[in-house]
Amino acid sequence: MNLRQHLPLLRWSVLRTGIGIRNFNRTGQIGDGREAAAADYVEANARRGDIDSVLATIDEYAYAKSFLVNIGDEKGALLDAAVRRADPGLALELGTYCGYGALRIARAAPSARVYSVELASANAAVARRIWAHAGVADRVTCVVGTVGDGGRTLDALHDEHGFDSGTVDFLFIDHDKNAYLSDLLSIVERGWLRSGAVVVADNVGFPGSPKYRAFMHDHEGDGWTTVEHRTHMEYQKLVPDLVLESQYRR
């Protein structure tokens, strides 16, 4: 393990993330251009049409250049395994950021249609560049919006992209931690999750989504079965985190 992984919190880009968190909460980006620079780095260094190369290059950028708030390589392996267990035909992600999570889903489920909902149009542009370079732009779609917008984005998914009763096999939640539970319940209320669908939630431990975790605890065996994966915050080994993998049983 290299020094950057041992002492990640000493990196300027990590400190800058903390400084820029208010901007991130408002715009979806840290504010120093690192997201667009990540797409530049991928286009300059990753093999075109090679998902493995693109993912490895994003990880390299996050370790060596600027810290990114996508799920990362350690927790990404948990995401990969959950996707393979679900074997989805249709997957939905909440929180695109730079497109890394959706790319991992697309790699683990090569026949799936993947949709990712992102609040920030600038992030959507970055993700689309990366998906195009990886060669998956024909099966990964970013929808700019948010589940908590009074139904407009959910209506667009239904009307324009075919989301309907029992169609969603896999859901990955990695956006506003305060919206995890409310957005999940909005999707459940639409009836989109098929029985047996798998839902993965990142960062439940840090920065944390206590209401979401409490809901899954309270409903264990009552519509949900959940496994908590103890892991670490992305791109470091010092700060613990939790990834929750839940199966819908209705």
UniProtKB/TrEMBL annotation:
| Cited SUPFAM superfamilies | S-adenosyl-L-methionine-dependent methyltransferases
Q: Which Pfam families match?
A: Methyltransf_3
GO terms classed as biological process: methylation
Checking PROSITE patterns in the record gives:
SAM_OMT_I
Which molecular-function annotations from GO does this UniProt entry contain? O-methyltransferase activity
InterPro entries according to UniProt: SAM-dependent_MTases_sf, SAM_O-MeTrfase
Q: Which UniProt keywords are listed?
A: Methyltransferase, S-adenosyl-L-methionine, Transferase
- List each coiled-coil range: none
Q: What is this protein called?
A: SAM-dependent methyltransferase
- Protein's organism: Mycolicibacterium aromaticivorans JS19b1 = JCM 16368
